Amino acid sequence: MTDTTGSSQNSLHLSNWEWPDDPQETLRPSVLYFDHECLVVNKPAGLLTQAPAGVPSVEAQTRRFFRACASRGSDPHQTNDTGERDDAVDYVGVPHRLDRATSGALLMGQSKAVTRKLAAQFEKRTIKKIYWALIEGCLQEACGSWTDWMRKLPDRALSEITTPDDPNAQWAELDFKTLAVDARCSLIEICLKTGRTHQIRLQASHRGLPILGDAEYGSRIDFGEAFADHRRRAIALHARMIDFWHPKRHHPVVVTAPVPTAWREFAAAHATKLRPLLDSTSVV
Questions:
Q1: Which residue from 19, 134, 175, 250 has the fewest beta carbons nearer than 10 Å?
Q2: Are 240 and 257 in contact (CB under 8 A)?
């Protein structure tokens, strides 16, 4: 379900916009919000946000989606508010990313002008992003904040906790709220205050609470489908909601992303206290 505050009359009916098949990739996003300027999709875990040509990604699939929309009657050459001519068929703006193993709401622009304004919101941290995470262990605090100094490891797709005097140190901060606790795991809601590489994954692991399925950061519990290629495996981190200011229509847009089936399957099999929150009938 999509809550588009102030924009219900302008957004397009989502059932009219089917995601095109990708001959190279069985994983496909679903459209959560689309108005020919901004697109929000629900990215499946295991699919890259961006990739080189020929490698499946959300960006490449979105380009096919925009082409399909143009072929159904939308103007493929729109003039943006700066007077530029943007090719809406081939251009895909990616103002932020989600890790390959992470699922959830991913925002993109269909013109350079819109994408620049969305990117500026991310840089100013005026866009609100809410994540859900299933973490190992029982988190006792009802709510709180995690603050650390961290750095990305050179030449590796990993980050680590460091000290403030490290020349590569970056401040990392998030707020969390505990939604449910079971015998072996907890469901938490996270509001990012900073956006560092693998921030949530590292900060949770540093506290002995790794995200389920995240073996790179110490998880011992499997999660989701067991692909032979470990790069396609999911972790229990989901971009649950994104709240942004529409750059051209000038109103707030709030989009909620349904949790993947793997979450409900895990709750049904292992964590009965989480089922009321993750059951398909109660989670939008």
A1: 250
A2: yes
**pLDDT digit string, tens, across residues 222-241:** 898 877 777 778 999 999 99
Q: Where do the domains of the chain lie, and which CATH numbers do they carry?
A: 2-278 (3.30.2350.10)
Tell me what pLDDT residue 7 has: 40
The amino acid at 89? V
As given in the structure block, the two tokens for residue 245 are 């200011």
- Write down the pLDDT at residue 271: 63
Q: Which residue has 């979450």 as its token pair?
A: 263
Which tokens is 281 given? 């009938």
Closest by CA to 201, choosing from 264, 157, 260, 241, is: 157
**Confidence label for 280 from pLDDT (cuts 50, 70 and 90):** low
The owner of tokens 């013109």 is 111
Q: Cβ–Cβ contacts within 10 Å for residue 229, how many?
A: 7
Would you say 58 and 49 are in contact if contact means Cβ atoms under 8 Å apart? yes
Residue 122 has pLDDT above 90, yes or no: yes
> For 47-95, how does the pLDDT look when each residue is reduced to its tens digit (9 = 90+)?
999 999 888 899 999 999 998 888 776 444 444 444 444 455 689 999 9
Mean pLDDT calculated for residue range 249-274: 87
